[in-house]
Backbone:
């Protein structure tokens, strides 16, 4: 297996050894920004128990909300693949964009011009300072992989996403793909 360095647009896949961490156990994180001063990402596979309308009652739509990470969980973030519809979008990589004009997003939802296959909403984000992510990589908490799904990553099934990544990694990771989330259940 090749060892990639973290980069904007890459994925962080939680090593099976991360247990007991509610945010990151079995997480797949899209790195939205990576600079010498730190990294920001969003957990793609941790669906919360409420919708966007539960958070913002004036928005009529059943859009799922995901746990983006443990930082600023009182703030709403979004990534999408329709920069032509959302002004102010910042490209992450491979046709995936971060943020933009939220008033426009609300209008697109109201007019049913955007779907869950095109946008994901997150409470909070995952953040690391300049050396923290390197320390976690050296401690074997994460595996860095390319985002081979490109913009179709928004369509991945959250329930099986981590397992699918374990199977793709192959080798000793295959056995972990079927292990119980809590090892004490084994």
Residues:
């Amino acid at each position: 297996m090749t060892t990639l360095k973290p980069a904007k647009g890459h994925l962080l896949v939680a090593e099976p050894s991360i247990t007991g961490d509610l945010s990151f156990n079995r997480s797949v994180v899209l790195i939205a920004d990576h600079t010498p001063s730190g990294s920001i990402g969003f957990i793609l596979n941790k669906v919360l128990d409420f919708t966007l309308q539960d958070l913002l009652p004036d928005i009529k739509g059943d859009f799922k909300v995901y746990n983006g990470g443990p930082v600023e969980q009182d703030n709403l973030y979004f990534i999408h693949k329709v920069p032509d519809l959302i002004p102010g979008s910042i490209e992450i990589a491979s046709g995936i964009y971060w943020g933009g004009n939220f008033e426009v997003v609300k209008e697109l939802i109201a007019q049913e011009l955007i779907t869950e296959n095109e946008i994901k909403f997150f409470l909070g984000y995952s953040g690391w300072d300049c050396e923290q992510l390197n320390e976690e990589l050296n401690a074997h908490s994460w595996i860095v992989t390319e985002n081979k799904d490109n913009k179709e990553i928004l369509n991945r099934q959250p329930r099986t996403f981590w397992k699918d990544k374990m199977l793709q990694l192959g080798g000793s990771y295959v056995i972990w793909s079927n292990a119980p989330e809590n090892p004490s259940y084994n």
